Amino acid sequence: MSNQSLPDVLNVQPIPSIQTMNIETNQLDPIVINQNFARFVFEKKGILDVGSTFTFSVHPTDTANGDGKAFLPVKTGIHSLIKRAVLKVGTKVLATSDDYAYYQTMKRAFKTNEEKSQKDLVKVGSTDVLEPDNQGDGEYQMKSLIYSAAATGNIDPSLVLTVSETECPVFSIKLSELFPMMKNIQLPLYLIAEHVSVELTFNTQASNQVGIIACFEDGYGDGTGIKVGTDNVKFLADYLTYENERMDATAKIVMSETGLVMPYEDLILTSSNVPKLATAPIGTNVVSQHTTRDLGLSGRNVRSILLHDHGDDNVLTGVYGSSGYNVADAYNWRVNDKLIYSRDVINEARKQNQLSHVFSTNINCTSSEYSPDVNTDKLQPHHPKNQDLIKDNTCQGHSQRELANQLHFEGVDLSVSPLNVPGAGMLVGQKPVEHIRTLYRTAQNNDDRQLRYFSLVERMMTLKAGQVMVSA
Predict the structure, then answer these.
(1) Whether the Cβ atoms of residue 126 and residue 144 lie closer than 8 Å to each other
(2) What share of the chain is helix, strand, coil (3-state, %, to 5)?
(3) Which residues of the chain have pLDDT under 70?
(4) Which domains does the chain show, CATH number per domain?
(5) pLDDT digits over 316-327, tens only?
(6) DSSP readout, 451-472?
(7) pLDDT of 241-295, one tens digit each?
(8) Which residues, including other chains, have CB under 8 Å from residue 52's CB and lie 6 or more apart?
(9) Which residues contact residue 171 at a Cβ distance below 8 angstroms, ignoring those fewer than 6 apart?
């Protein structure tokens, strides 16, 4: 969110004039750390840079058989470790990211292939870019794998999870990735009276579970538990200081009668589910299932809403895949008693277009990864699969065709202004936002679905005389 009213030193934009800046980087250990939780407290100095980074490592708990057998979900990477992140000032909650790994999986799909393959491959441990297949058959295969043969690929050994907590890959997550607010605001820690802290709740993966934190190679039949390498959980904090004149000018605003007002964005999670049909369709039958889900966003300025619709777990993407239906679902939104669309959205290309408005860029994946639409036979009523665009080469022994139809996210942009400025969100009245859908169930698509709605809302923080006040 662009905010021209913020002092230059707090706005995440180039400063219009040349300034002397000092950067001090400190490595902070968590004050609390265990297999489920970590808490960091920042020092009260300078301005906290949004590029500050957390580091993590994860490891198989089966020390006898698990070494080198596990890898991070290919679309999610180390983000799979984080279940919940909370940013606090004292006891006041500034921002919360619930089911963070699901949201970040969606957000990463809009990055460029260059960033995903040349940066995130190393920093995040993801392997989610496709390229033309080795056989030259006009299909796609995973890039950045180590191919021992044309059809046999494996995760780079430097990214495979090890039992050792000292000789192991260490991955990183930026502070600006954990919280949407930190994409646009740098916190003036030196002006905040109370301590600023981040609390991280970790996902857990027991010995009989797969895909929550890590996936395992094909044929592995031993314990699949994953633990956190607690000695590798650190925070690399960058504290910025500018010339005294600039720092004092910001302090004067904070000590003024009105204080420093900082608009920002936060996430609200709404979870639901859609059960499968009690009587499953058979043959070529198509059975419609009408659903309506209410999102409690009354009184909030809402910028956008994203839907993650999870069906069955996947051997490569874990629990973070969001799959579409062979016969495309239809949806609409009702906000303030008005439908957003004059007719339901059902065309898959239009869904991608509406989704692109949320992030102001197109989703960066192949059509086959987004939807089953390109792989199905439209001459038959139930649209059965009749072709593949992803080659049946392997990754850790698993067919790479498992990547098909794993990025079928849906979203709506509710901004009332094309400018990314405070107040651009749509104000929701007393009634909840309604998501109205029609699912077309077939013999191939009759499963229980877990729904996660991520609503990006506008909030306000006021910093006055060292004290922080936060809107609801």
Answers:
(1) no
(2) 15, 35, 45
(3) 1-5, 8, 12-19, 420
(4) 21-470 (2.70.9.10)
(5) 999 999 999 999
(6) EEEEEEEEEEEEEETTEEEE--
(7) 988 888 898 999 999 999 999 999 999 999 999 999 999 999 999 999 999 999 9
(8) 174, 175, 235, 236, 237, 238
(9) 55, 56, 57, 72, 77, 78, 123, 124, 125
